[in-house]
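okkk here we go again. third time trying to get the calcium ion bound version out, last two times i messed up the smiles copy paste (missing a bracket lol). double checked this time i swear
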Amino acid sequence: MLYFRRTLAITAVLIVSIEAAADLVYESDFQSGVTTHWSSSDLSTDELGKVVLGLFKQETISLTLPAQPTGEYGITFDFFNFNTWDGAEGDSFEFQINGTTSIDATFDNLASFVDLQTYSISTPLGGGPFPTGTDNTGMDLLKHTGADASRIGNFRYTPSFTFTHSGGDMTFTFVGKIDQPSVSFNGFPDEVWSLDRVSVIAIPEPPMIPVLSLFGLVGAAIHWRKNTKQRSLTGGARAGQVLR
Ligand SMILES: [Ca+2]
Ligand SMILES: [Ca+2]
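finally!!
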């Protein structure tokens, strides 16, 4: 049993070590004002000093990370939409990884108009329809006010994906597809969006060590069961007695 516990402990340490070894490839919260690798340098600052990339309307922007090696990667980011996105009108956001679409769904901000959205965490390519703001990770976190001094509502979403990269430049594309780009509401652009906290990591190779450890665990279990059985067969143990 001691051998089994030790193997479990070693396996836990190895798995934690491997997770900790995931390489950070790119990270930015734009607070420093740096927009290297982005196709746009448009930044905005809210009333509390929070800096985000955007605000964008009907625009396509991209992040290109040059010469990335072949392997498994992960990306997560914050997507904010503001004011009056209308899911029923088809106001949508698209996200591509190396040209492959990972998100393409409608989003909605105004529950009062009963406009439903097709985005949810489990249906990034559209499903539902779902209630306004489904699977958002924060409401009105960015503080903007319109020209008429009213507070501009916004939702934050924080999608994340893993993907295989075949080597070379790695490109992420973000597309706002709204139908009222020239409209104002509350003295603020009616349907705009922004990005924040973008993070790309390289995931270590499918690890041999945990696989080997798994074999080790199985071996440990067999070893423990054998020992237990042997001790039982030799009459060393009685009901209620703890084998050590
Ligand atoms: Ca609208
Ligand atoms: Ca609209």
